[in-house]
Amino acid sequence: MDLDTVTEIRSARELDGWRPGDAWLAGGTFLFSEPQPHLTRLLDLSDMGWAPLEVTDRGLEIAATCTVAELARFVPPAGWTAVRPATGPSLVEQCCHSFVASFKIWTMATVGGNICNALPAGPMISLTAALEGTATLVAPDGARRFVPVADVVTGVGTTVLSDGELLRSVTLPTSALRSTTAFRQASLYPVGRSGALLIGRLDPLEGSLTLTVTASTVRPVQLRFGRVPDAGTLAAAVAEAIPAQAYVDDVHGLPAWRRHMTRRLAEEIRRELEEGTR
């Protein structure tokens, strides 16, 4: 779609200060998908030269400009069972395919853009929140702050980002990457947008379970247990953590259906991870 209010596209390297009407441009798959009458200038991040993916002593650093295709092709080190399981598709593959998008979107859409759009069905939110990702946010004056991805999204289309603040990268810690995970996703249609997407993560050392709920809720919800709980404990925890008004209500699923699927998928994850501990 043509953005007829935009009069300038400038490299982010040449930024002369943030001003009203500016927007960061990464892949642009969302920016160019609908009218943006409030925008007058786009600041292009594509030539910033950030390495898409970098294995460090802390874990995996994912640049905001890393595309879905680049992430899907990533071959992780041995031992990172969360993203390199012995059998079956990896958590990265499952989340990438949750886009239900063509290869053209995969080669342009970015991890950072998906997180910053803050749509409930954003699978990069699901992936990075479930793996305890920490977002590095950079203000126009260069000041940095570090926020858990699960706390970056505050509602449908809203985040903690202040005016002009940029998501630079997301770091996934090695401890989470070495976990055992279980993935469940539900949609009203075989190729529809996610109506519920849940990821369970079992810590191999502590035996603790973290359940991350996305897509069905207006923002990510995480439940933590010292060990895999029984069915009743899990059901009660989900009911308490997610009140009725926290479920999304749109054409992709009514709140009652999303609540039902969240509880059903949570129990499926609990059973799968419990079996894995035996």
From TrEMBL:
InterPro entries: Diverse_Substr_Oxidored (IPR051312), FAD-bd_PCMH (IPR016166), FAD-bd_PCMH-like_sf (IPR036318), FAD-bd_PCMH_sub2 (IPR016169), Mopterin_DH_FAD-bd (IPR002346)
Domain called FAD-binding PCMH-type: residue spans: 1-177
Record's protein name: FAD-binding molybdopterin dehydrogenase
Lineage, opening ranks: Bacteria, Bacillati, Actinomycetota, Actinomycetes, Pseudonocardiales
